TrEMBL record:
<keyword id="KW-0238">DNA-binding</keyword>
<dbReference type="Pfam" id="PF01381">
    <property type="entry name" value="HTH_3"/>
</dbReference>
<protein>
    <recommendedName>
        <fullName>HTH cro/C1-type domain-containing protein</fullName>
    </recommendedName>
</protein>
<dbReference type="InterPro" id="IPR001387">
    <property type="entry name" value="Cro/C1-type_HTH"/>
</dbReference>
<dbReference type="InterPro" id="IPR010982">
    <property type="entry name" value="Lambda_DNA-bd_dom_sf"/>
</dbReference>
<feature type="domain" description="HTH cro/C1-type">
    <location>
        <begin position="10"/>
        <end position="64"/>
    </location>
</feature>
<dbReference type="GO" id="GO:0003677">
    <property type="term" value="F:DNA binding"/>
</dbReference>
Length: 370
């Protein structure tokens, strides 16, 4: 917790107002010695006097005592980045103690709480037992419910509801996930298109283009994610699966997504490799794994969420609108390790001795060491 800065604040505000300690003391109804002790940090004003002192200087009580319940977007990014590094390099319990202290200090800063929920959802698996994992997921649920109950910002409430659903999904509380999300699927309203047309009508073509591109980007990524899920549901149906996979590949090519750091861009090829293994088509499985390795080895490191030549407005939007900006939500070394680990999936046992598989693994491991 930050130290109270009442003394500094009183000195600064008194000088700005051009009054003496005695004049302030007379107004408050205390002795000059009391004001002197406040300013030298020998004592603090009685709690009942704080509103009167704050009113006299035309500031809030929070400003008077130097307390800031909110964090800036940059503050939140720095804290998140530090915790990501700490989770990757320090004992989990030790880092969680610091996490809890930060939660207490900024319990009313809802953008910060949302980010801390995301942090925990990305790192809860690092704890040692299933019981502890479940407890951490319930902590996420508790924080999400607090945000939903206390925040008056619609987008914060929406994000909290989505993150609560993620926590419940990880906890295998599938019925609860349905309860949280089933009513959120509503018909498309067309508001985005209206907003774009409105900006075009007032002559702001750049703003219209940016909004159009951002919405297109979000929808394309969403479609690719849904195709990946759809492909996973049809892995044992060769013809249907092939159609879905090729649709995904076409979207990646059409919208220049290959070098964009986005889970479904690489993920759909992993699903394809698994499906081809099930179909006993090892050659196609290896081709799909080669696509996966090409993508993750082609990323620009250090990793960050970024646009492309096609989505050239995305970088600006990411920094303006996403709480973490372009920061990857996990430590980069942990992400690199996960890129390798997925290829050790037992489903690939039948091709682990294949020369192409060995070359792909070697290339991937060497690249991730850079």
């Amino acid at each position: 917790m930050k130290e109270l800065n009442i003394s500094k604040c009183i000195i600064q505000k008194r000088k700005e107002k051009g009054i003496t300690q005695e004049q302030l003391a007379d107004y408050i109804g205390v002795s000059k010695a009391s004001v002197s002790k406040w300013e030298s940090s020998q004592s603090y004003p009685d709690i009942l006097l704080l509103p009167e002192i704050a009113t006299y200087f035309n500031i809030t009580v929070d400003e008077l005592i130097g307390y800031s319940p909110q964090l800036t977007k940059d503050d939140i990014k720095k804290i998140y980045t530090k915790f990501c590094k700490d989770f990757a390099t320090r004992p989990f319990g030790e880092v969680m103690n610091e996490y809890e202290q930060m939660i207490k200090e900024y319990y009313s800063c809802f953008p910060f709480l949302l980010t801390m929920v995301q942090l925990l959802l990305n790192h809860f698996t690092l704890t040692d037992t299933d019981e502890n994992k479940k407890a951490l997921l319930q902590k996420c649920v508790f924080l999400c419910r607090r945000i939903k109950d206390e925040s008056d910002v619609v987008d914060e409430i929406r994000q909290a509801n989505s993150m609560e659903a993620v926590a419940e999904m990880f906890s295998s509380n599938f019925t609860r996930v349905i309860d949280l999300l089933d009513s959120t699927i509503v018909p498309v309203s067309g508001e985005d298109e209206l907003l774009i047309q409105a900006y075009m009508s007032v002559g702001d073509s750049k703003k219209a283009a940016k909004i159009c591109q951002v919405n297109l980007y979000q929808k394309v990524i969403s479609i690719l994610s849904l195709l990946t899920i759809n492909a996973s549901m049809h892995m044992s149906e060769p013809a249907t699966f092939e159609t879905i996979y090729q649709q995904g590949c076409q979207i990646i090519k059409s919208f220049d997504l290959k070098n964009m750091v986005c889970n479904p861009v690489a993920g759909i090829h992993l699903v394809a490799a698994q499906s081809y293994i099930m179909q006993q088509d090892n050659e196609k499985a290896l081709d799909a794994l080669e696509e996966y390795v090409d993508i993750v080895c082609g990323y620009t490191y250090p990793l960050k969420i970024r646009g492309s030549s096609y989505f050239n407005y995305i970088d600006e939007w990411i920094e303006e609108s996403i709480p973490l900006g372009s920061i990857i939500p996990r430590d980069e070394n942990a992400v690199k390790k996960s890129f390798i680990d997925v290829l050790y999936n037992p489903i690939f046992e039948s091709i682990k001795d294949d020369d192409k598989y060995k070359l792909l693994m070697s290339r991937l491991e060497q690249n991730m060491k850079k």
